[in-house]
UniProtKB/TrEMBL annotation:
GO MF entry, a single one: channel activity
Family (UniProt): Belongs to the MIP/aquaporin (TC 1.A.8) family. AQP11/AQP12 subfamily.
Protein's name according to its UniProt entry: Aquaporin
UniProtKB keywords: Membrane, Repeat, Transmembrane, Transmembrane helix, Transport
Organism: Bemisia tabaci (Sweetpotato whitefly)
TM helices/strands, residue ranges: 6-26, 38-63, 69-87, 108-133, 153-175, 187-210, 230-248
Domain of life where this protein originates: Eukaryota
Length: 262
């Protein structure tokens, strides 16, 4: 890796750090002015989390394109741990609210409102990241602000949906099991497992496992129709989430709950 490459990676890293710092202080401000757990606070925090997630992943695409999948994985792993500590109850992911509706923890209208906030955060952040790219401080960003995006789906729509569904199912199931068993370093284990699945799916569907993230980064890109995008990244991921919840409640939860009693 040459000097220019090191500089480019440093710029990408500083952009990700800047994004995380801005989001951190916005969250602090929201908690300061809305010190009670209200729907408005939840909506705002989900908006911020989705914006942070998507802005960071826009830059991670630069890292992957220029420095390879290993560098991408290291950054994603680190960010996943950070998000786990800093987001609180926010998820920036629609199907977690679908799970809440199914389990009776929230109302469908509330879930839809929060999902719209997440979509809004994911789409709104593009102007911010596009401005950073337009500065072209490093060669890795040259021309990216005005470049046409291309789809990450490299396989047939049905196979892509199965990849997103299967990986989402595994991610959600694994997270629930870790939540029950509460092993030491569970956040790190969960982040490593999720990152590994993203890397495994990278050359098939892109490994998004999050409809908002996929929509913010890839909706309307060359190579995918609207139907393909919706089926793969929305239906696929949501079906995987529901499958994980069903399997967990029926087959896994009785055993993990027993183990917690002993």
């Amino acid at each position: 890796m040459g000097t220019a490459s090191v500089f480019g990676l440093a710029v990408s890293t500083s952009y990700i750090f800047l994004t995380s710092l801005i989001a951190f202080w916005i969250r602090k401000f929201i908690h300061r002015i809305l010190n009670r757990d209200t729907l408005l606070r939840s909506v705002l925090l989900e908006f911020v989390a989705a914006a942070e997630l998507c802005a960071s992943c826009f830059e991670l695409a630069i890292v992957a394109d220029n420095y390879g999948i290993l560098a991408y994985a290291v950054y994603l792993f680190s960010l996943t741990i950070w998000w786990g500590y800093s987001w609180g109850s926010a998820t920036a992911c629609p199907y977690t609210h679908l799970e809440d509706v199914i389990e009776g923890r929230t109302d469908l209208r509330v879930a839809l409102l929060i999902c719209w906030a997440e979509i809004g955060g994911g789409l709104a952040i593009f102007r911010y990241i596009n401005y950073l790219w337009s500065l072209e401080i490093a060669s890795v960003h040259k021309g990216r602000a005005n470049a046409a995006c291309t789809a990450d789906l490299q396989v047939h729509m049905i196979l892509g949906a199965l990849v997103e569904a299967g990986a989402t199912c595994l991610c959600r199931l694994f997270s629930r099991i870790l939540g029950d068993l509460e092993p030491k370093f569970s956040n790190y284990i969960d982040a490593f497992f999720g990152t590994s699945l993203v890397v495994a799916a990278f050359n098939y569907s892109g490994g998004y496992f999050n409809p908002v993230l996929a929509t913010a980064l890839k909706y309307g890109c060359e190579g995918n129709t609207t139907i393909e995008h919706f089926v793969v990244y929305w239906i696929g991921a949501c079906l995987g989430s529901v499958a994980a919840l069903t399997f967990y409640n029926r087959y896994v939860r009785p055993f993990t709950q027993k183990s917690k009693l002993h």
